[in-house]
Structure formats: structure tokens, C-alpha cells
Amino acid sequence: MSEPDSDEADWSDDTAAGFIAPVSMEDDPAELFAGDAGTLDADVRRVLVQLLRRKFLLAEKYPAQWRTLQENQQIIESRLHDLFVRLVVDHDRGIAYKQQVRSAELDVPILLKDDPYNRAETLVLVHLRTVFQRESGTGETSARVDIEELEQTVLTYFDPEDHNLARGQRDIRKAIERLATEGLITEESAGRYRITPLVEVVLSTEKLTELNQWLRERNEVTS
Known about the structure:
It comes from Actinophytocola gossypii. This is DUF4194 domain-containing protein. InterPro entries: JetB. Pfam families: DUF4194. The chain is an alpha+beta fold. It folds into two domains: 23-113, Aspartate Aminotransferase, domain 1, CATH 3.90.1150; 119-222, Orthogonal Bundle (Arc Repressor Mutant, subunit A). Helix content is 50%, strand content 13%. The protein has helices at residues 6-18, 42-53, 63-71, 73-81, 119-137, 147-155, 165-181, 198-202, 205-222, and strands spanning 56-58, 85-90, 95-100, 143-146, 185-189, 192-195. The strands form two sheets. It has a three-stranded antiparallel β-sheet with strand order 1-3-2. Strand 2 (85-90) and strand 3 form a beta hairpin. Helix 5 (119-137) packs across helix 6. The chain is elongated, with a radius of gyration of 28 Å.
């Protein structure tokens, strides 16, 4: 077989040099998994996922993720805006949460499911918000409740004709579990909870006043 001429040999060498040897996924720091087309660092992606999975991101509960959010807030906001979701960051309270964008002028697909609180959860929330507002008004930096006191108070809001006390207590306990999961209360010891500033975000002063007025009118009717 004849040897390639010099021009052909040079072309072959140049062509070979122009190809990049394949790099395994483990040796490519920019790719987190096979076929990864994302551009965000792993920590930033985790924060984005947390914001999508949970109702709230609390600085107190997730300090590392909160720092990542602060350092990358603009790009995280951009990614959420691509999904028609607005990011709200309350730096004073250390709370971040998302809101569904809605517009009369634009056809917006709804991504976030509206998961309202049931009756027991709303009544527990009203009491928590009332206690938090009262303690804050006296200059206290934190507010706490005991589960027994919480149950006794919330049970007074229930229908007096409903004599199934066990069912009412069970509903209240389930409500407490959900609110604790969402970060509105934190159990410090058995049966004793600290109320977090998140209750101010979930239940505004105006809404609290409205609900308290409704409860007073309801009690007057049933008394």
C-alpha cells in the first residue's frame, strides 16, 4: 500500500487534532447528569426545587439554602418567571415564597395548585395569629402556645351542637401537624410550640380582623 503524500498526511493530522476526545460525565464539572443542558450550579438548582416543592423557604430552618437564594436571587427569579411564577423574598422576616402570576391580558397556564386551609386549620391559624400579634404588641420577640391551651380555645369556635369532642380534638391535631410542616409553628418541647413570623404572611392583619369579626358574630348567634 502506498504511503499518503505529505499534504494528505498533514490533513489527516489536522483533522485528528480538530476532534475533541470524549470526556466522561465524572470528569465534566459542568454536567451534573448525562445529557444535562442546565446551567445552574447544583446548590442553586436545589433551592429552585425547594421553592417549587414547598410553600415557603425559611431562613431559620434552611440557613444554607437561604444564603444561596440571596446570592442567586436574580437568576432564580428569572427561572420562576419563565414558569409564570413570582418569587417574593421577605428579607426582614427571613421568608421566601412563590405566587402564581395571573393576568387578564395574557393567557397564563396555572402551575400552582390552590390548596386552601380547611375549617380546623383556619381556626388554629386565627388563634396563632392572634397570639403572635398580642405578644408582638407587648415587645416580645417570640410567641409560644401550649397544645392544651390551643385546643381549648379553638374548640370554642366549633359548633356547640357538635358534642363529638374527640373528633374536634383530632381535627385540631391534624391542623397543627400541617401548620408545623409548613413552618408556621415549631415544636420546642413536647406539646409546646413557638409561632414563627410566617403567620403574618399567611394571615394578614386585615384578614385576621375579618375572621375575628366573623367568629364574634357567629358566637353571638349561637349563644
